[in-house]
Amino acid sequence: MAVSIHQILKNIKSDFDTAITTAQFNDNEYANGNKAKEALIRSQRIINYIHEFIKSEFLRCGVPAHMIYPPIGKPSPEITIKGFLKSKNQDVSIIPTKKLVTLTETGAPELEKVLTVNIRSQLSSLGKNIDTLYERTFAEALNLHLSYPKQCLGEVYLIPTHEYDDKAMVQNKIVFKSPSKVENYIRMFQAINNRRSDSGNEYKYERVCLLIADFRQKNPKLYNSLEELKNDGLISKSTKASLDYLTTDHFAENLLDVYVGRFGRGVII
Fold it and tell me: What percent of the chain has pLDDT over 90?
C-alpha cells in the first residue's frame, strides 16, 4: 500500500509535538518535554516513518518486496556493508541475491549490486550540528564508492524550515526559531548529488532527496520547488541554488534508472 509523504510528515509532527507538550513517550514520563523528545528520537520511530515511505516508493516502481531490507513494515534486520574504512548498517537496501552472509565480507562481489538508501532527520539543533552531519554524509558515500565504484547510493535528509527550540522544550512548550538557512543546505546537498558516472566523484550520491518541511503548520508543508521557497521568503529571489534532482519527485525512479544503466534490466526490476 502506498505511503503518502504528507501523511508521514503529519505523523512526525504529531509524535514530536505530543512528546514535547506532555513530557511523555511510549507510556513513560520524563523530566520535561526535551527529555521525552530525546527518547522519541532514540526509539527510531520518527526516522522509521521515512524508511517505510522509501520502501513503498521502490515497491511502486516494481522492485520485488523480497529484495527490500529491512522487510516492509519492519525496522530490522538492517544489512551491514563493509566499505573502504568501516562497516555500517544501511537503512534501506535492495539486495538482488539471497546470499546475505557474504554482504559483510570485504570485497564481496555481490555488494556492488546492492542499492542502498540512508535516511536522516534533524528537526532541532540543526544550525550547530550541520557541519558535522554534512561531513558524515559526505564521508559515507566516499567510504562505499571507494570500495564499490558502481554501487548506487541514495540519501534522504529531512530538515525544517524553522527549527524547534530546544530551550522551550524544557518548559514543555513548542516554539520555533527564525528561518533556517535553507539556501545553504540546498547548495550543500546539491554538491554531493547526482553522480552519474561510475568512475570519479566517489563522495557523491547517485541521488539525494532533501525533504524541506515547515512544521509550524498543523499539516506540515513540504517544499518541492524554488518558487514556493521564494514566495514564502525562505530563500532569496535571486538565488542561484537549484532543487533539480533534489526533491521527492522521482527519487526512486532516478536511482533505479542509474542502476539499470550500470547493471542492466532483470537484476532488480
Answer: 79
Angle at 153 between CA 147 and CA 156, to 5 degrees: 140
Query: Which residues on neighbouring strands pair with residue 90, listed in sequence order?
Result: 79
Q: How do residues 96-135 score in pLDDT, each as one tens digit? A: 876 554 455 555 667 889 999 999 998 887 776 778 888 8
Q: Are 23 and 33 in contact (CB under 8 A)?
A: yes
pLDDT per position as a tens digit, 29-39: 999 999 999 99
Distance CA 47, CA 133 (A): 15
Rg (C-alpha) for the chain, rounded Å, is 19
pTM strictly above 0.90:
yes
How far apart CA 53 and CA 145 sit, in angstroms, is: 25
Q: How far is CA 48 from the centre of its chain?
A: 10
Domain boundaries, the chain: 62-263
Phi, then psi, of 7 in degrees rounded to 5: -70, -35
* Distance from the Cα of residue 47 to its chain's centroid: 8
Q: Copy the grid coordinates of residue 70.
A: 529491512
**The C-alpha cell that represents 133 in the structure block:** 552531519
Q: Which residue has the cell 538492517?
A: 78
Residue 235 neighbours by CB under 8 Å, 6+ apart = 182, 183, 186, 226, 229, 241
| Helix and strand counts by DSSP (H, E) for the chain | 8, 12
- Return the half-sphere exposure (C-beta side, CA atoms, 13 A cut-off) of residue 141: 28
H helices of the chain, in order, are 5-22, 33-42, 45-60, 126-145, 166-169, 182-190, 226-231, 251-263
Q: If we measure between CA atoms, which residue out of 10, 35, 14 comes closest to residue 172?
A: 35
